[in-house]
Design brief:
8-stranded antiparallel β-sheet; Elongation Factor Tu (Ef-tu), domain 3; alpha+beta
Length: 601
């Protein structure tokens, strides 16, 4: 058994977005003959249209490749393809737990970027064998020697020994396969011990229920073994076990060191979460594998159908989407302006964007999204603490002792030319400067502590425009901190529009309130009566603007004659406008809700 395990290599590829990770996966599949040339498509492992369009990996994937090495042996290579974006760091962490090694892929034209470093540190924490790879050496602007020097400074690996490949034309891929065998250690784990298998991803299948992607660390599992999930003691009847090559292929057993899948028959992905441990019912393991911690949503927003009749369709679509994405949470809510909808929690802004696009494309829904907000801890005067993710739910200010907001540690990687503008950007968003480190003579890393609410909207866009696209960003959660925060309500025609309420820092309340009412004045269409727009903190109005009413010329039919007749017509018009103002309904366009998003422009 040990001999078979010596010929297994479990590894993943870590890289920044768009550094060629999925293309390199394609070349490895091709070189090992896992996929026939006629079946080959670009980015084979990225199955979703969104993944191909955006050039990012959203879901972790796994694939088994059989490789005939130069030493005459056949090796089983298990590649786990991980997402690169910081929003999906939770999936990356558990995918790394399933591996013994990692390929660190760096673009020869871009050099080391934020998420490369973040995922590298994560890999080093998991004690993985790292093989650095410089990719895209075929491009005219490539600087493989300079980038290899950067990696040497970072890892201490001699620059001349670093692999140089082109995932596009296949240069260096054969040497890389040999390096995987010689530089990554085989898995350890006793197949005779009770079964412990780590769930590193899952998806829902309408015939087989939840398919759990597992790495068996100890013991073995056959199709006949009744299994159990350790976090909730949920018993599962195994419908099928198998491996990915890259489509699902049933096998008779998975043993210590193997990567594969278990078809559980469960109807809800929440019953079998990423990071869970699967064990046997008859010989259960004493304790689960370390590191299980359910993902916590960081960003919250309301999703409402444009047509009220689509509410049930939106609810069904969210239910189906949640079957494949356990990190998405939602609950029903209603709004005076937008009627019925759902309050949804997301891992980050990219996650929110992807969920909204999938709902609109796959389920043909037309949606309005409210401005994203974060979850605040609100300490009340009676000694209790509540969590609020919707500004409309904030209690009266008289009952609040303090409001604590989430803070993040952000790292900005930038060429030295852009240090000034980026320092100004971060400090202008209440960022607290921490340190500056030079990565080499041309590139620098700036560290800040900053409230999450300040980097939610437009921060990344401004970062890219100020640095001409060269800067990159990584962030991690620090904790909640008290701040001088207030709720700013927006009144349209003297009625509070809860979907436009925001929680802001007291110092910036006046500036943001003035800007918001001016922007709303531009997007709310004129009605037959004047529409006042007000921003209020507590009971005090801090800014106001008025959309002038459209006025019909009631005197057009009067040619001369007595002035009293004209006065009577004007008085009647004034009375009609007064009555309309009382009973008239204001229709707010989608642009009105988008103005909150552009407050930091």
């Amino acid at each position: 058994m040990s001999n078979a395990r010596d010929r297994i290599r479990n590894f993943c590829i870590i890289a920044h977005i768009d550094h060629g990770k999925s293309t390199l996966s394609d070349r490895l599949l091709e070189a090992t003959g896992t996929i026939a040339q006629r079946e080959m498509a670009e980015q084979v492992l990225d199955r979703m249209d969104l993944e191909r369009e955006k050039g990012i990996t959203i879901k972790a994937k796994a694939v088994r490749m059989l490789y005939d090495s130069q030493d005459g042996q056949q090796y089983e290579l298990n590649l786990i393809d991980t997402p690169g974006h910081v929003d999906f760091a939770y999936e990356v962490s558990h995918a790394l737990s399933a591996c013994e090694g990692a390929l660190l892929v760096v673009d020869a034209t871009q050099g080391i970027e934020a998420q490369t470093l973040a995922n590298l540190y994560l890999a080093l924490e998991h004690d993985l064998d790292i093989i650095p790879v410089v990719n895209k050496i075929d491009l005219p602007s490539a600087n493989p020697d300079g980038v290899a020097g950067e990696i040497e400074d970072l890892l201490g690996v001699p620059a001349e020994t670093i692999m140089r490949v082109s995932a596009k034309d296949g240069t260096g891929v054969d040497q890389l396969l040999e390096a995987i065998i010689t530089q990554i250690r085989p898995p350890v784990g006793d197949p005779e011990r009770p079964l412990r298998a780590l769930v590193f991803d899952s998806h829902y299948d309408s015939y087989k229920g939840v398919i759990a992607y597992v790495r068996v660390l100890e013991g073995q599992c056959t199709g006949l073994t009744p299994l159990m999930i350790m976090s909730n003691s949920r018993r599962i009847e195994t419908l099928e076990i198998g491996v990915f090559s890259p489509d699902m292929r049933p096998v008779e057993q998975l043993s210590a060191g193997n990567v594969g899948y278990v078809a559980t028959g469960l109807k809800n992905v929440r019953d079998c979460r990423v990071g869970d441990t699967i064990t046997g019912v008859q010989r259960p393991a004493e304790e689960p594998l370390a590191g299980f911690d359910p993902p916590k949503p960081m960003v919250f927003a309301g999703l409402y159908p444009v047509e009220n009749d689509d509410y049930v369709a939106l609810r069904d679509a969210l239910e189906k989407l949640q079957l494949n994405d356990a990190s998405l949470v939602y609950e029903p809510e209603s709004s005076v302006a937008l009627n019925m909808g759902f309050r949804c929690g997301f891992l980050g802004l990219l996650h929110m964007e992807i969920v909204q696009e999938r709902l609109e494309r796959e389920y043909e829904l037309d949606l309005i999204a409210t401005a994203p907000s974060v979850e605040y801890e609100v300490a009340l005067t009676n000694g209790t603490t509540i969590r609020v993710d919707n500004p409309a739910d904030l209690p009266d200010m008289a009952q609040i002792a303090e409001i604590r907001e989430p803070w993040m540690h952000i790292s900005l990687f930038t060429p030295t030319d852009y240090i000034g503008p980026l320092m100004e950007l971060a400090t202008g968003r209440r960022g607290v400067f921490e340190k500056m480190e030079y990565l080499d003579t041309r590139r620098v890393m700036l560290s800040f502590e900053i409230p999450l609410s300040e980097i939610l909207v437009n921060f990344h866009d401004q970062l890219k425009s100020l640095s001409r696209g060269y800067a990159s960003m990584d962030y991690r959660f620090l904790g909640h901190r008290a701040g001088d925060l207030v709720k700013m309500s927006i009144l349209v025609n003297e009625e509070v529009v809860d979907a436009l309420s925001v929680i802001v820092h007291r110092e910036s309340a006046y500036d943001k309130g003035s800007l918001l009412v001016r922007r709303l004045k531009e997007v709310i269409p004129p009605h037959l009566f004047p529409v006042p727009i007000q921003a209020a903190v507590g009971g005090r109005v801090i800014a106001r603007a008025t959309v002038k009413g459209v006025r019909k010329d009631v005197l057009a039919k009067c040619y001369g004659g007595d002035i009293t007749r004209k006065r009577k017509l004007l008085e009647r018009q004034k009375e009609g406008r007064r009555r309309l103002k009382r009973i008239g309904k204001i229709e707010l366009p989608q642009e009105a809700f988008m103005t909150v998003l552009r407050l930091n422009d």
